[in-house]
Design brief:
There is one protein chain. By secondary structure, the chain is mostly helical. The protein has 8 helices and 3 strands. A hairpin with a 2-residue loop joins strand 2 and strand 3.
Amino acid sequence: MDTLTLTIPSRTAMARKLAEALRPYDVELRHAEATRVLAAVLDENEHTLAAKLDQTRAPRGNPTEQARSGTQQANLLRALVKAGLELAVSVPAMGGARTCVATAEQALRLLEDKETVYGELVGLSKPDYIEWQASDGSVYCCARTKAGKRCRNVVSGGTWLEPAAWKALQDAKGYCAIHGG
């Protein structure tokens, strides 16, 4: 899965309403008593909080209402983060995915520009994240072939690298064994 996932460990009606309200953002709440904490954070009883969650659903069509709803969703995410809840993002990585903790702002931006957010979460820029993904964590030789094309051999020790190691080796502009590496 290449987006956030929403999981609330409580089966109360409010937890179900929260799941519906945050479905577009697919935020995973990691807390054993998410419902009680949410009510305390927002200083509301269960019924008032359920009504507020109804208001955070993004309305269709009307741009003014969509903007207001987006602000409410942002405020709710910030309140959750402030309360100590984590927003876990499943970031596509080699061999599957890795779980990273996102800020409320990153969670909100995920729907608009997921590659940038994924890159931030693993310590890369958007172009570097896309290249790291496309290369399966491999760094290729920077030499040119006789035909003028870039060599497609892997740099020695340059396969299945984690993002930071990949970036360091990529920036080193290394060569494969054939071209002197």
